[in-house]
Amino acid sequence: MVRRKLLHAALRAWVIQCWWRSMQAKMLEQRRRLALRLYTCQEWAVVKVQAQVRMWQARRRFLQARQAACIIQSHWRWHASQTRGLIQGRYEVKASRLELDIEILMT
């Protein structure tokens, strides 16, 4: 009878130990998933910030290039309006060379 009680106690202890090990494994898995979720959120936040910075840099470069193009166009238009009608010329293409005859009229 004592052996039977000791056997039952040992079996109960073994069942409790098995249950405790399974609970520890579940808690470890939950902690691992939580850590993975947090890591993923942080990575996405970093990716989003990097994308915003790259977009801002690209936009800044685009705006600088557009401003430079506008400046060049305005200077070219001014130059074209200042020289319009002042340069007259004719050209002839001969067999081996290009002969230019340009008259510059100053008014």
Query: What does the largest sheet look like?
Result: 2 strands, antiparallel
Number of helices: 1
| Global structural class | alpha+beta
Distance between the termini: 132 Å
The side-by-side strand order for the widest beta sheet comes to 1-2
Shape: rod-shaped
Folded structure, characterized:
It is a single chain. The protein is an alpha+beta fold and 107 residues long. 77% of the residues lie in helices and 13% in strands. The longest helix is centred in the middle third of the chain and has 82 residues, at 2-83. The mean pLDDT is 84. Residues 1-25 form the signal peptide. It comes from Vicugna pacos (Alpaca). Keywords: Signal. This is IQ domain-containing protein F6 isoform X2.
Question: Outline of this structure?
Answer:
With 107 residues, the protein is of the alpha+beta class. 77% of the residues lie in helices and 13% in strands. Strands 1-2 form a two-stranded antiparallel ribbon.
Please supply descriptive tags for the structure shown above.
IQ domain-containing protein F6 isoform X2; 1 helix; IQ_motif_EF-hand-BS; IQCF; 107 residues; signal; alpha+beta; two-stranded antiparallel ribbon
SSE map:
Blueprint: H1 2-83, E1 87-93, E2 98-104
Pfam families: IQ
Signal peptide: 1-25
Keywords: Signal
